[in-house]
Design a protein that fits this description.
The structure is a homodimer.
Chain A (H helix, E strand, L loop, with lengths): L1 H15 L3 H11 E8 L4 E3 L1 H14 L6 E2 L4 E3 L2 E8 L8 E10 L5 E12 L3
Parallel strand pairs in A: 1-7
Antiparallel strand pairs in A: 1-2, 3-5, 4-5, 5-6, 6-7
Helix pairs in contact in A: 1-2, 2-3
Chain lengths: ~120, ~120
């Protein structure tokens, strides 16, 4: 459980890391080599593809920072948590979602499947 | 998407079916032969084990009926939905959760991973 919390914290940090080298290192310590991320709009399989996917998201949403907005619920190597980004003057579009993850035996992520909870323009 | 809705409806029906033969048939049409269900408390792998697991839950919670309490959100063969049971005079303990499912190529469930959203005694 402690390890799951740590890998989720690294996962969120990877989405927020704008330094290319540090982001790539975070991805390698977060996902297994064949790990995947998939939501309705984005998909990456393996460290290179996940890195390119996050880089593209950062360019699409400059100034955004992802933050956990729930606890991390985990059992039997599975976990779910919710996140939010935006809703600020620099990042007005509010984005939120829930990710379901499968943790591999080595403690890194085997898969992250994301669902959108909210995406609405700020008033 | 239509097929995912149908398999989720069969899945909920399986939890509610008290007739042993009909429940077993629903399970076979809902899960792949090697399909799994797992939450923090229950686990079944394969039709026989899933059937025994649901039978035990029905005995533990007589009178309960599971109902969807959210839409079924799906993308790329993954789906999530929330359910509720109880909160009535016959079934006073309210139970609720969110299930995250992976749909196999044949349209049946490969895995269901459940998380508890609420479990509180009625007032």
């Amino acid at each position: 459980m402690s390890n799951i919390n740590e890998v989720v914290v690294r996962y969120v940090a990877a989405w927020n890391e704008r330094d290319a080298k540090r982001r790539r290192d975070l991805i390698a310590s977060t996902w297994r080599e064949d790990g995947i991320y998939r939501d309705a709009h984005r998909h990456g399989e393996g460290h290179d593809a996940i890195d390119a996917m996050i880089d593209a998201a950062q360019r699409q949403f400059p100034g955004y920072r992802v933050a956990l907005k729930s606890g991390i619920e985990a059992h039997n190597g599975y976990a779910r948590f919710s996140w939010a980004a935006g809703g600020t003057p620099d990042a007005p579009l509010y984005l939120g979602g829930t990710d379901f993850v499968v943790v591999a035996d080595d403690g890194r992520l085997e898969s992250v499947i994301g669902f959108v909870d909210a995406a609405a323009a700020a008033g």
